[in-house]
Amino acid sequence: MDYRKNVYNICRKLAQKFDRPRGFLDFSSSSQLFFDSYIPGTGIHSDGAKIIANYLKTIALERPDAMERIDFTHNRIGNDATKAIADLVVARNGGLKSVDLDFNIITSNGVKPFCDEDVLGKLISLSFSGNSIQDEGATYLAEAIETNTSLIGLDVTHNEIGDAGATKLGNSLLISPNKELHIEGRVYYSAKELLNEI
Hints:
Layout: H1 3-18, E1 32-34, H2 45-58, E2 69-71, H3 79-91, E3 98-100, H4 108-111, H5 117-120, E4 125-127, H6 134-145, E5 153-155, H7 163-175, E6 180-183, E7 186-188, H8 191-197
Helix pairs in contact: 1-2, 2-3, 6-7, 7-8
């Protein structure tokens, strides 16, 4: 199936959900949106993610907490779409608390829009698992979470992060504790745990 048809169907379903009198995003009887595709070649891709993010920004929501989580896992989304998704976080003004961008084609430049305090300061959970952000992307995120007080969970598992990036993330946990960090298949609750392994 062509990704444009997927995007069209998603936007059509969103429009139907918005017309409901009691909110809209109850795909799983909660306030979460999932755009997850495990079938290769049928994801929404970067262009689709941008269209959906921009569409969600323009729709007048009936209640500010209507969308707490959005999951764009397995959709071949690249760096060019992350800005639109980060802008959606800002537009939701704290209502959107969790973003999952797992198993896409995002590199270090794709994490930059999420490192802005206007974006990161509104999230409690952010996941880039299974991309290719490497040490450079880990460094961007580490610098951003040093001053962040809202983010609790960050998942950068399976991103080709080496000792340099892991050290930066570990040091950021020293400065800004009380975060759960997922990196290369392990969960760390403190900087000491992570830095002892490096």
